[in-house]
Structures are given as C-alpha cells and as structure tokens.
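User: I'm writing a tutorial on reading structure tokens. Could you give me a worked example: one chain, its sequence, then its tokens, then a sentence or two explaining what the tokens reveal?
Assistant: Sure. Here is the example chain.
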Amino acid sequence: MANQWIAGVDLGGTTTKIAFITMDGEIVHKWEIPTDNSNEGQNITTNIAKAINEKLNQLGKSNDSLLGIGMGAPGPVDYETGIILNVVNLGWKDNYPLKESLEAAASMPVAVENDANCAALGEMWKGAGNGAKNLVCVTLGTGVGGGVIANGSIVQGKNGAAGEIGHITVIPDGGAPCNCGKTGCLETIASATGIVRLANEELLKGESKGELAERLAANGKITSKDVFESAENGDALANKVLKEVYFHLGFVLASIANTLNPDNIVLGGGVSKAGNILLDAVTENFAKFAFSAVRDSTKLALATLGNDAGVLGAAWLIKNKLNQ
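And here are its predicted structure tokens:
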C-alpha cells in the first residue's frame, strides 16, 4: 500500500483536474482534461477513466498501482451512495449515480464528495488547516462555497447540502437575487461577482471619480481585482464597497464560529488572492461579533493549496476509507 497511489479528481464544468497522490499527500503527477458535458454528460466518467489509464500506461504502471479514485463534484452529493443530487453545467439529470458510473468505467473503488468539501479536506490534510480536525473552509470565487469539518469528518447533513455558507442570508429585505433562487445571500456580496455588482451600483450613482471609475472608463468593465487594487491605492469608492464586504463576511464567519468553534476558518478561492488586506479586515470584523472564547481560539487563515486543494481532498476520501 505504501508504494501505491490514489487518483484525486476535481470535476469542474469546463475542466477536470486529475492527480496521482501518495498516501502521505505528495502529488506525484497532475494534469487536466476538458470536461465533455455533451449528450447529458454521458462521456464524463469514461473520459476520466480513460485519462487515468493512459497516464498509468505512460508511466509504465498498471491499475494495481492505484488504491482507488476520490472525486470532488460540484453540487450536493449523497456520500454513502455517491449519487449527485442535482448539478448545473454538467448535463446530468438529477440523482445521477456518479460513484457507480465511475467505478464501472475505471474498475476500481471510488468515493465522491462535494467539491467545496474536498477543498476543505485538502486544506485540513496538507494546507492551512495544519492537520486540525475542526475546520471551516470558505471558497470565495465566482460564488461562495463552504466545507465544514468536525472531528476530522465532513459535515454532510441530511441531504448532502451542509456547509452552504454562500447561501446564508445577509440582506433579509431588498437583497440582490442569487443564482440559488433566494435573495440577499452572502454570495451576492462576498463573491467576485458580488463585489463587482456592489462596485457597479456605486459607480452608477454618478459623478464617481477616482481610480476605479477610471478603470471602468478605460476597459468598459471592472473586476474584483480592480476593486481591491483601487482600494489599496486609496480609492474612496472601492474602499466603501470592500468595507461592506468585510463587514458581512466577518459577521457570518463569527456566527459560524460561535456555533462550531473550529480550530481554523480558512479563506480560499480567487478573491482570497487579495491576501492580508482581506484577511486582516475580515478578522477585525470577526473579532467584533465572535463570542470571547471563540474569538480567542478560532483563527482565520488564507488557504495555501490553491488549485491543488480539491484533488488532495478527493484523495483523502480514499485514504480515510482505507484507514477505517
């Protein structure tokens, strides 16, 4: 077993990341393939199995070199059955038997979990969690994802939908519409798209001056990176927008920590690339709203694994099964 690897798979709507990983969490090989979501996604699992077999052949290895395949998939997953309940962008119908389909294609054991949960497991195992067994991971990207780990295990909930931190309501009345069908979700504020929305709303109020307005005029649009960079350079409007983001994010994370008191709350995703500017401001708001014993024990940190978090967490699923 010590010389065998685990295949970690991070399934995305556009690309699928695959890696061979040792039982100690060392990435031996990693690569990507396009995600073919045509024909109701019927080629996805066969393409993954084919890609793994081809890579093994290139390396002069056989299927026996792998202990199994762990996969992170976008959407709520029934961990026990490996059924993905509903998902957009992949073509599958609701309640798709993902584990069963990949096991049939690859002829080896498979474990499937939600992709944000896998990112949390990856950060717990080899990243900013530093091996902590109680961890909350928040992914700030196009949307806001979340994974909650308690006593070393993912909290899945009744329907595989636990940890949907992005859909905590932060604006009860008059909030912006969210893709989930609700309004006023954290995702509408603290995601990259939410930050851009807030900035555009401020810019549309007219007579906006400063760097962010100049970037909009020059490029016809702005990004969340523009907002952070303009704020760093002293732009008043950008700082006003980010002040609102930091408030809501800190408030929500304090509420989560007051409930769970994890060792760490890890911030990942593209927005987290803002670095300590984001971390320090969110931590300041977190401290205002966290219960004193929680404030003194739960630490906020930036994710360290980047795009590798998902494949490492997926591999951990197999490692954990073998260790049980």
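What the tokens reveal: The mean pLDDT is 94. The first helix runs from residue 44 to 58.
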